[in-house]
From TrEMBL:
Pfam families tied to this protein: Thioredoxin_2
Lineage of the organism: Bacteria, Pseudomonadati, Bacteroidota, Sphingobacteriia, Sphingobacteriales
One BP annotation, GO: response to stress
Keywords from the named record: Redox-active center, Signal
PROSITE patterns in alphabetical order: THIOREDOXIN_1, THIOREDOXIN_2
Name of protein: Thioredoxin fold domain-containing protein
């Protein structure tokens, strides 16, 4: 009886919580949604999602139910969802949208998920957002759809009509970057860079544009940074010229080898890059890339040895997050005691760099447990739990603790 009474109290609470978030239209077709938008003089917000997309699920479970998100979208938009994939569990409402989903993917170039399309009250596409985000940031992105000066599709039409206009190109480059339209972004950035002198390019105002355009090896922007490292470093606050160039060169070389299914020899790559780009020092970038590559190829002894070399030389610059990620990769995938002991050292170092961080303590506890140090693992996990404030995370960590106490595996 107590459980029944509790359920009776919970149901109104859940209904109330759901009513605070974004209200999505159901059992309406596209024509009916456009009619409703025209009648209420609202824009149309369409969430193009798939059942397998993690960020899509996060937006649905965490962002859209929030009151402030609901207040914004319900006031400005008629909101709809379109499932872009097909599953055996689809209901009749989802199936009725199959044909429309295929048309949306083709007509509006929906290639990544989640993609959010925004139409005006007449059903004309004016804006797109690719990828999710936290509530305030996502609201700010959607706010741009309400202003013709910041609407993506409106900017694109202006740019195509006047492709040499530098002011339009600047706005277009930033908008295209947010929309993951790499082709348009490259065109717009090229227009802007061509209009500037070298001194004008190397300013705080234009440094983000330069970095974005330089992501292609041997491009004009890439060479501008390579040939003017001092000017770049004088205005760049986030990254130094050598770090940017070396990381780009090494990752490009490694990815080229992977795509060609060739063996990756880091010593040979460094030698080749030194000959072609003698002013760029790639040693650190190479050492940083090696453990990632060995993790990708599931060579965990290689990951262990290369990451230890990286720590030995650049340990002071490594973040707690980097140490934790590498340690967790070993824990999840390798049962070799030597690898696990190395991972334990990395995890211990991450906890020294950032004390009392539940996530890092959890990693350390799991590695200790896999190494057979059960009592120490349990104490570490209990400490992690005592520091958690998020209920969902605490539940997950408690479940891990129970497995440790029962002697069950905490890894796959």
């Amino acid at each position: 009886m107590k459980k029944l009474i509790l359920m009776l109290f919970l149901i109104p609470t859940l209904l109330f919580a759901q009513s605070e978030g974004v209200k999505f239209e159901h059992r309406l077709n596209w024509s009916q949604i456009k009619e409703k938008a025209a009648k209420e003089n609202k824009f149309i917000f369409v969430d193009c999602f798939t059942t397998w997309c993690g960020p899509c699920k996060y937006m649905s479970s965490t962002i859209f139910p929030q009151a402030k998100v609901g207040d914004f979208f319900n006031a400005k938009f008629i909101n709809a969802k379109i499932q872009m994939d097909k599953t055996k569990n689809d209901n009749e409402d989802i199936k009725s949208w199959y044909e429309e989903a295929d048309r949306f993917a083709k007509d509006y170039k929906v290639r990544a998920y989640p993609t959010f399309l925004i139409f005006d009250s007449k059903g004309t596409l004016v804006h797109r957002i690719v990828g999710g985000g936290e509530a305030d940031d996502f609201i700010a992105k959607a706010q741009k759809s309400l202003d013709p000066n910041t609407q993506y599709e409106t900017l694109l039409a202006k740019f195509n009509a006047d492709p040499t206009n530098v002011n339009i190109a600047k706005s277009m480059a930033m908008a295209a970057k947010e929309a993951y339209d790499e082709e348009t972004q490259a065109k717009a950035e090229g227009v802007v860079l061509a209009s500037l002198t070298t001194d004008q390019i190397f300013t705080k105002e234009n440094i983000s544009l330069l970095l974005s355009a330089a992501n292609v090896v041997d491009s004009k922007a890439f060479n501008l940074i390579k040939d003017n490292p001092a000017k770049f470093d004088a205005v760049s606050e986030k990254v130094k010229a050598n770090d940017f160039l070396s990381q780009l060169l090494v990752s490009n070389a490694v990815n080229t080898k992977i795509r060609a299914k060739e063996t990756v020899d880091f010593a040979s790559i460094e030698k080749e890059l030194a000959q072609k780009y003698p002013t760029v020092n790639t040693e650190k970038a190479s050492l940083e890339m090696q453990p990632r590559y060995y993790g990708y190829t599931k060579n965990y002894p290689g990951l262990r040895d290369s990451f230890n070399k990286y720590i030995a030389k650049y340990g002071s610059t490594i973040t707690a997050a980097e140490l934790n990620n590498m340690a967790w990769s070993i824990f999840e995938n390798c049962n070799d005691p030597a690898c696990l002991k190395a991972a334990a050292e990395w995890s211990k170092l991450s906890n020294e760099k950032e004390k009392d961080a539940p996530m890092y303590l959890d990693t350390f506890a799991n590695i200790l447990y896999r190494l057979g140090e059960k009592e120490k693992a349990i104490k570490t996990q209990e400490k992690a739990i005592s520091l958690i404030t998020d209920a969902t995370q605490k539940e997950e960590y408690v479940a891990t603790l129970q497995k440790m106490k029962k002697g069950e595996k905490t890894w796959q």
